[in-house]
Amino acid sequence: MASPQTTNAFICLKVPEQLIDALAGLQQQCHNRVDPQNPEHIHITLGFLHEADEQKLADTRALISSGKWQAPLVRLTGQVRHGSWALKKNPLYHYDEQTVQKGEQVRLGVEHNDELRRIQEEITQGLDIVEEDFWPHLTLGLAMEDFPAAQTSGMDLPTVSGPAPSVDVQQEVSTAEFTTLVHKDLPNT
């Protein structure tokens, strides 16, 4: 975690309950090789705030609170990827497209529709967050062991979709726990 004067946080879209419920079945199918993401933490990350000071957090609160966004539809694309921002810091780690490696996230692609794009761009531009190659996704869980990436293409992905209920700012408390700093409900169109 960052020093006491700064913190790590992220801005995210919450995932509709009906999709989270449907993902529980998929997580159960993969339970022998993927440690499931806690349902209350399933989200779509819009931008990271690394070592944010109080001024950056105040700017973030103001931007999110004043945002005028409609709820984007959250629908899975069928694309599955794997990787790890944490493992990339280890010089011994080498990404392998053919193998999901122990500790990597299994990520499910989310449709990048106009409203989701608008929210993400306004947030990242408004807060000067650089997000290269933004790919909206949600994390199914972490690989508990190495397995062939081809096994992810055979997963029976949920077809349930729905509007994102809110944009939240979450502060990192630990690698698995977060505190909500801002919660903004999104109206349905």
Describe the structure.
This protein is an alpha+beta fold and 189 residues long. 21% of the residues lie in helices and 34% in strands. It has helices spanning 17-29, 54-66, 114-126, and strands spanning 7-14, 34-36, 43-52, 73-74, 76-83, 99-100, 105-110, 137-143, 147-148, 162-163, 166-172, 178-185. It starts with 6 loop residues before the first strand and ends with a strand.
Shape: globular
The structure class reads alpha+beta
Oligomer: single chain
User: What is the first-to-last residue Cα distance?
Assistant: 39 Å
Write the layout of secondary structure elements.
Elements: E1 7-14, H1 17-29, E2 34-36, E3 43-52, H2 54-66, E4 73-74, E5 76-83, E6 99-100, E7 105-110, H3 114-126, E8 137-143, E9 147-148, E10 162-163, E11 166-172, E12 178-185
Antiparallel strand pairs: 1-3, 1-11, 2-8, 4-10, 5-7, 6-9, 7-8, 11-12
Structure in a nutshell:
The protein is of the alpha+beta class and 189 residues long. The chain has helices at residues 17-29, 54-66, 114-126, and strands at residues 7-14, 34-36, 43-52, 73-74, 76-83, 99-100, 105-110, 137-143, 147-148, 162-163, 166-172, 178-185.
